[in-house]
Design a protein that fits this description.
347 residues; alpha/beta; Aminopeptidase; Rossmann fold; 12 helices; 39% helix; ligase; acyltransferase activity, transferring groups other than amino-acyl groups; lyase
C-alpha cells in the first residue's frame, strides 16, 4: 500500500457506491458494469477508481485534487494484482489519449485509436500474434485479395445468408468474421456453428473467429448496451473498433472490400455503418452496402427470431432462418430459448 492510500475492492453486483459514481460523473463517465471495482482513498476521502470487466480495465477516474499523484496508475496496478492470482494475464485499457502515457509506464502498448479514445494492451497472445495468425490463415487459403463481413449472427438468419451470397459472388474470397464476445442472446459457440453450417456450401468463404479485436468488449463495449442516448460515446468507439480492423484484419487478410447490410432498425448499428464509410477508405477498403433482405414487407432481422423464441412460438421461424439455423435452433430449443429469455444484450 502506498503511504496514505487505502484500497477497497468492491463487487458491483452488490451495488455501486455513490463515491464511485461521483468520481465517474466528474470525469464525464458512467458506470457500464464490471466484475470488480477498486476504490482508492486518500485520508479516507474517495480519490480514484477503476474497474475490470472481463479483460478490460475501464472507468478509470481520479478526483482532480489528486491528479498529480499517479493514482490512476495505482488503481490499475491494484486491479492487475487482483486479477493475476485468478489466472488472468491479458488485459486491455480503454482510455483518453491524454492518459495513455500513464498506462504505457505500466507496460501497456497502444494498439488502436480514435478521436477521443485509445486502446492499450498488455500480455500475450496480443494483437500482433492475432494478426500473424490471420495472415497464416490467408496464406493457407491461398488468396491475394479478399472481402470481409463482420457479423454477430445472433442468430444466423436468411438475411445474413443473403448478404454473404452477395459478397461471395462479388469477391475472389470472402472472410466472414464472427464477433466472439459472449454478451449476446446466443452464445458464441452456437453463433459461429450456425454461421459455418449456413455457409459451408459457398466454396470461396472462410469463417473466422473475431477474437478480442472485432466488435469486442474491449473495442466497442456500447455495441452490447444498445443505448442510442450514448451517441457520442458510440461515435468514438465505432471509430476505434474500425481503426483496429484497419490495422489488424485489413493487412493480414488483404481486404479490399467490406460488405454490410443496410440498417433500418438499430441506431447503434446505423452509426457503425456511417463510421465505416468514413474510416475504412483510409485503409484502402471500399464499403459496400447491400439492401436488407425482406420478408412480408419487413427486413429479415435476428431480433424477430429472438422475439418469437422469447414468446415460445417457433411458427414463422422458417421464413426468417436458413434450413441449417432452423434445424440447429429446434434441436437445441430449450437451452437456447432459456438463454434468450435471460439475456439482456440488444444484439
Amino acid at each position: 500500500m502506498s503511504f496514505g492510500v487505502e484500497t477497497e475492492f468492491l463487487d458491483p453486483a452488490s451495488g455501486v457506491p455513490e463515491e464511485v459514481l461521483s468520481l465517474l460523473y466528474a470525469e464525464g463517465l458512467r458506470f457500464e458494469g464490471a466484475d470488480v471495482t477498486v476504490l482508492l482513498r486518500m485520508n479516507r476521502r474517495p480519490a480514484a477508481t477503476a474497474s475490470l470487466d472481463g479483460q478490460v480495465i475501464k472507468m478509470v477516474a481520479v478526483d482532480p485534487e489528486y491528479r498529480s499523484m499517479g493514482l490512476s496508475a495505482q488503481a490499475v496496478s491494484r486491479l492487475l494484482e487482483w486479477a493475476r492470482p485468478r489466472g488472468m494475464g491479458h488485459f486491455f485499457v480503454y482510455t483518453k489519449p491524454s492518459e495513455a502515457d500513464k498506462f504505457e509506464s505500466l507496460g501497456f502498448c497502444q494498439i488502436g485509436s480514435s478521436p477521443g479514445a485509445v486502446l492499450l494492451e498488455m500480455g500475450r497472445p496480443n494483437a500482433e500474434d492475432f494478426r500473424r495468425g490471420l495472415e497464416e490463415l490467408r496464406l493457407r487459403v491461398g488468396v491475394e485479395e479478399s472481402s470481409a463481413i463482420v457479423m454477430n449472427a445472433n442468430p444466423f438468419t436468411r438475411g445474413h445468408r443473403y448478404l454473404a451470397e452477395r459478397a461471395s459472388s462479388a469477391s475472389e474470397h470472402l472472410f466472414v468474421v464472427v464477433v466472439r464476445s459472449d454478451r449476446s442472446s446466443f452464445p458464441f459457440e452456437d453463433r459461429i456453428r450456425m454461421v459455418r453450417l449456413g455457409l459451408e456450401d459457398l466454396g470461396n468463404v472462410t469463417v473466422v473467429d473475431g477474437g478480442d479485436y472485432a466488435v469486442s468488449s474491449a473495442t466497442f463495449p456500447t455495441y452490447f448496451l444498445r443505448d442510442p442516448s450514448m451517441e457520442e460515446v458510440i461515435r468514438i468507439q465505432t471509430r476505434l473498433d474500425l481503426d483496429l480492423f484497419g490495422r489488424i484484419f485489413v493487412p493480414a487478410l488483404r481486404i479490399r472490400s467490406r460488405f454490410v447490410g443496410t440498417e433500418p432498425y438499430c441506431p447503434v448499428t446505423g452509426l457503425y455503418n456511417q463510421a465505416m464509410r468514413e474510416v475504412l477508405p483510409r485503409f484502402g477498403v471500399q464499403v459496400v452496402e447491400v439492401p436488407r433482405l425482406e420478408e412480408g414487407g419487413s427486413a429479415v432481422s435476428a431480433s424477430l427470431v429472438r422475439r418469437a423464441m422469447a414468446e415460445g412460438d417457433p411458427r414463422g421461424l422458417e421464413a426468417l432462418l436458413p434450413p441449417t439455423s432452423y434445424r440447429y435452433i429446434m434441436d437445441n430449443w430449450d437451452r437456447l430459448r432459456e438463454r434468450v429469455l435471460s439475456s439482456k444484450g440488444g444484439h
